[in-house]
Write a structure and sequence with these properties.
The complex is a heterodimer of chains A (115) and B (114).
Chain A (H helix, E strand, L loop, with lengths): L4 E3 L2 E4 L5 E6 L6 E7 L6 E7 L2 E5 L6 E5 L5 E5 L8 E8 L10 E2 L3 E5 L1
Chain B lengths: L3 E2 L4 E5 L4 E7 L4 E9 L6 E7 L4 E4 L2 E6 L4 E6 L8 E9 L8 E2 L3 E6 L1
Parallel strand pairs in B: 2-11
Antiparallel strand pairs in B: 1-3, 3-8, 4-5, 4-9, 6-7, 7-8, 9-10, 9-11
The chains are: A mainly beta (115), B mainly beta (114).
C-alpha cells in the first residue's frame, strides 16, 4: 500500500459527459501529480500541484482541469469526454516539489472507460 | 516526440538468469533516472534510481547502469525470480526549473519463467 488513495477505481461513462477523479496523497506529502496511461503508451504527465498551487503542466487537454485543496487532496476534472480519453489515470504524491531526491508514490489508478 | 524510449515491449527470461531491461533517452538535460515496477491492477512502485554523477547503482538483485555518452541506461536483475514478472518503466527528470515532472518510457513487460 503506497498510502496514496484514488477513487473511484473504475468509472464507465458516456461521451460528452464530465467526471471527477479524486486523489488523497500520502500523509505529509505536499505534491500531487496526475498521469494518464493510454493503451500502449507510457505514463503521460498531466499536471503537478504543490501545496495548493499549480507548478507544472504537461500534456493536459483544455477539457481537463485539476485543483489541489487546502487539505492537500486533489481532483482531476475531465469534461466533454471522448472515446480517446479512456485510459488509466494515476495520481502520485511526493514530499517535495521535485523528483530529484525523493521518489514519488503512486496510487492504484482510476480506470476510465468512455463508451 | 518520445524523449524516453523503451524499445522492447516485452522480455522473457528463465528463472535464475539475468534480466536486462534497456532504456534510451534523447534529452541531455536529464540528470536523474528512475525505474518503476508495475504489477497488474496496481500503481507503479519505485524500484531504483541513479543520478547522472554516477554510472552504477546497486540495490540487492537490482543494478542500474548509466551510460551518459550513449544516453542509455539499463536495469539488471540477477537472479531473476518469477515474482519479478511485471511491467518496468524507465523515467527521467531534468534538474531544477519550473517543471518538476518525470518523463516515462512506454514500459517493458518482463516475464520470468519458472
Amino acid at each position: 500500500d503506497s498510502g496514496v488513495t484514488q477513487t473511484p477505481k473504475h468509472l464507465i461513462t458516456a461521451t460528452g459527459q464530465r467526471v471527477t477523479l479524486r486523489c488523497s496523497p500520502r500523509s505529509g506529502d505536499l505534491s500531487v501529480y496526475w498521469y494518464q496511461q493510454s493503451l500502449d503508451q507510457g505514463l503521460q504527465f498531466l499536471i503537478h500541484y504543490y501545496n495548493g498551487e499549480e507548478r507544472a503542466k504537461g500534456n493536459i487537454l483544455e477539457r481537463f482541469s485539476a485543483q489541489q485543496f487546502p487539505d492537500l487532496h486533489s481532483e482531476l476534472n475531465l469534461s466533454s469526454l471522448e472515446l480517446g480519453d479512456s485510459a488509466l489515470y494515476f495520481c502520485a504524491s511526493s514530499l517535495f516539489g521535485t523528483f530529484m531526491n525523493t521518489e514519488a508514490f503512486f496510487g492504484q489508478g482510476t480506470r476510465l472507460t468512455v463508451v | 516526440d518520445q524523449q524516453v524510449k523503451q524499445n522492447s515491449p516485452s522480455l522473457s527470461v528463465q528463472e535464475g538468469r539475468i534480466s536486462i531491461l534497456n532504456c534510451d533517452y534523447t534529452n541531455s538535460m536529464f540528470d536523474y533516472f528512475l525505474w518503476y515496477k508495475k504489477y497488474p491492477a496496481e500503481g507503479p512502485t519505485f524500484l531504483i534510481s541513479i543520478s547522472s554523477i554516477k554510472d552504477k547503482n546497486e540495490d540487492g538483485r537490482f543494478t542500474v547502469f548509466l551510460n551518459k555518452s550513449a544516453k542509455h541506461l539499463s536495469l539488471h536483475i540477477v537472479p531473476s525470480q518469477p515474482g519479478d514478472s511485471a511491467v518496468y518503466f524507465c523515467a527521467a527528470s531534468a534538474a531544477g526549473g519550473a517543471t518538476n515532472k518525470l518523463i516515462f518510457g512506454t514500459g517493458t513487460l518482463l516475464a520470468v519463467q519458472p
